[in-house]
Design a protein that fits this description.
Elements (H helix, E strand, L loop, with lengths): L1 E10 L2 H8 L14 E4 L5 H7 L6 E2 L4 E9 L2 E13 L2 E4 L37 E8 L4 E7 L7 H6 L1 H4 L8 E4 L6 E2 L8 E2 L1 H4 L32 H11 L12 H21 L13 E2 L5 E2 L1 E4 L14 E4 L1 H9 L15 E6 L2 E6 L2 H9 L6
Parallel strand pairs: 4-8
Antiparallel strand pairs: 1-7, 1-9, 1-10, 2-6, 3-4, 4-5, 5-6, 7-8, 10-11, 12-13, 14-15, 16-17
Helix pairs in contact: 6-7
Length: 379
């Protein structure tokens, strides 16, 4: 049982459906678009920022791009997907053309998994009425893709009310939207047809009987036994586990295959966790100034790749710094001077400028040694 945090949807246009299946050579001079658009007038840039909160973005010419893992409702397996700002007027899901060598069609939207396909793929007006695709983000940060065709994907009326904006738009070709449920909405990731429901339909309310009045008797106070907290790792343990394991990494990003992507994300998560422990949750640029404590009383911080992964940057400690969420956003969206880590000083610091204001990145000594060991001796 998953809880829906956000949902984006799009009713496919005839052009999108046609180009997703269009055979090579059907039309002279073009292969057809390979993306599905979400107009910014329906799903704004702010909506996408909220939707991908906590997921690092990469800047392209027209705007941000997010690469993330996506699951498919009712289908086993997952894949890597890219959503990016293709132009000022829209954000897009890339690589959805079936006949392209670079096709990365979402598994839920494959014909073998029940997704509609045209009777005549050369007909430009063959999109079935009311065909919509959607992607759900759960409260645990998972992404799930699904679709429906001129029907309700809800099990109960309350779920239909929550998703009214999506379900009432079936007659509008190309309509898209962003939904943040204001009432608890659940997702059954195994049900292709009706995955959405409220707790009422899953667990009917049973009247609670009146409690029986029992005379109170003294109850002995149970003994309390203190729980010994786990001993924190020493600095040497952290750095040895972090840097020894990553010895031999290069600046070249590995091939974009599903198997390699899964391994990279696992290694990156471990390295990031160790770096956060090494810096005790403090920002390498501003220290405690813009950090905060989470509900579990641990400091919240984020990892930033100095050379973005999309520009062949390595997913290893020597290419990562730990920063506060505010500084992280500034590094992605503000005017930032070139960051040349070969110019790191003997004090393991490097001055940069953000919006023409001076800031200093400070590395832990052993982190700095790892960074320096990966520098090109000829540079």
């Amino acid at each position: 049982m998953k809880i829906v945090q956000f949902l984006v949807f799009r009713y496919l246009t005839h052009a999108e459906f046609f180009n997703m299946y269009k055979p090579s050579g059907t039309e002279v001079g073009g292969g057809g678009q390979s993306y599905i658009d979400f107009p910014t007038k329906s799903v704004s840039s702010e909506n996408w920022d909220n939707y991908f909160s906590g997921i690092p973005s990469e800047e392209r010419t027209q705007g941000p791009s997010w690469t993330f893992e996506i699951n498919s409702i009712g289908v086993s397996g997952y894949q890597s997907l890219i959503i990016f700002q293709r132009r000022e007027q829209s954000f897009s899901i890339s690589s959805q053309k079936m006949t392209s060598n670079r096709a990365n069609r979402v598994l839920a939207w494959h014909p073998q998994n029940g997704f509609p396909e045209p009777v005549d793929p050369t007909n430009r007006n063959s999109c079935p009425p009311g065909l919509a695709i959607y992607i759900v983000r759960t409260n645990t940060g998972e992404f799930w893709a699904g679709w429906f065709r001129d029907n309700s994907p809800c099990r109960d009326p309350q779920a239909q009310i929550i998703l009214h904006n999506m379900l009432s738009s079936s007659t509008v070709e190309g309509y898209a939207g962003f939904i943040q449920p204001n009432t608890m909405l659940y997702l059954d990731e195994t049900d292709i047809n009706t995955p959405f429901y409220t707790i009422a339909v899953q667990s009917p309310i049973i009247p609670i009987p009146q409690p029986i009045q029992i005379p109170q008797t003294p109850v002995p106070t149970p003994k309390s036994f203190p729980i010994s907290p786990k001993a924190p790792k020493s600095e040497d343990e952290i750095t040895k586990a972090l840097f020894d394991e990553d010895e031999g990494e290069t600046n070249n990003a590995p091939p974009q295959t599903k198997e390699v992507i899964a391994r990279i994300r696992s290694r990156n998560a471990k390295s990031v966790k160790s770096l956060k422990e090494l810096y005790q949750g403090k920002c390498q640029i501003t220290g405690d100034e813009y950090t905060f404590l989470k509900k579990d009383n641990t400091p919240y911080c984020e990892a930033h790749h100095l050379i973005p992964l999309g520009l062949q940057g390595a997913d290893s400690p020597f290419n990562i710094i730990i920063v506060s969420p505010l500084i992280h956003k500034m590094l992605h969206y503000a005017d930032v001077s070139p960051i040349d880590i070969s110019k790191m000083t003997g004090t393991n610091t490097l001055q940069i400028f953000i919006n023409n204001e001076p800031y200093t990145i400070t590395w832990h000594a052993k982190h700095a040694d790892n960074v320096k060991s990966h520098q090109d001796p000829s540079s």
